C-alpha cells in the first residue's frame, strides 16, 4: 500500500490520519526521496539471494526432463534433506523407536514366565556364597569374578560397620528387622572374604 503524499507550497508531507481508536496522527513533513518503513524492502545478503535464485533441480538435470511431482505432502525420507548428520541420525533413531513401539503391542507379553523366573533367582543369604557361578573359560575370568566378589563383600562389610557405629552412637534408636539381619551376617561375610583372599 503506497502512502499518499501531499505536496503544497510548504513542501511534501504525509497528511494527518485517524487511528482506529478515534485519535488523530499529526501530519509529517518528509524529504524528497523518503520511503516509508513498511515499504522498505527486506535486506537479503548475497548468499540468501544466491540460494533463492538457485534451481531446485540437481546440477545437470534440465527442467524439461525432470519428473513432475504431484502436489501434496512429500513421501519418503525427504524431511532429512537439509539436516546435519547428527540430526539425521537422531531422526532415524526416533523412527526406529516408533516402529518398535508399534510392534510391541502385537507381541504377546510373558509376564507370568518372567515373574516365575525372578522367583527362582536367589540372593545371598546368611550363610550363602552369593550364588556366584564357577568361572568357565580360564583363569582371567575366574580372577575378575573373584575380585568383583571381594569388592562386593568389602562394601557390605563397610555398610555393616557403619550401621554398627550408628547404633552405638545412638543415631538409630529403633533398628529394623532388616538392619538387625545385616548385623547378624557380619561374621559370615568376614569368613567368606577371608576365604576368597586366601585363594
UniProtKB/TrEMBL annotation:
Start-end of Basic residues biased regions: 86-97, 148-157
GO cellular component terms listed in the entry, alphabetical order: cytoplasm; exon-exon junction complex
GO biological process: exon-exon junction complex disassembly
Pfam (any one): Mago-bind
Protein name (database record): PYM1 protein
SUPFAM superfamilies, per the entry: Pym (Within the bgcn gene intron protein, WIBG), N-terminal domain (SSF101931)
InterPro entries in UniProt: PYM1, WIBG_mago-bd, WIBG_N_sf
GO molecular function: RNA binding
Region spans: Disordered: 1-30, 53-199
Bias (Basic and acidic residues) ranges: 158-167, 179-199
Domain (WIBG Mago-binding): residue spans on this chain: 10-36
Organism: Neopipo cinnamomea
Family as reported in the entry's similarity comment: Belongs to the pym family.
Assembly behavior: Interacts (via N-terminus) with magoh and rbm8a; the interaction is direct. Associates (eIF2A-like region) with the 40S ribosomal subunit and the 48S preinitiation complex.
Upper classification of the organism: Eukaryota, Metazoa, Chordata, Craniata, Vertebrata
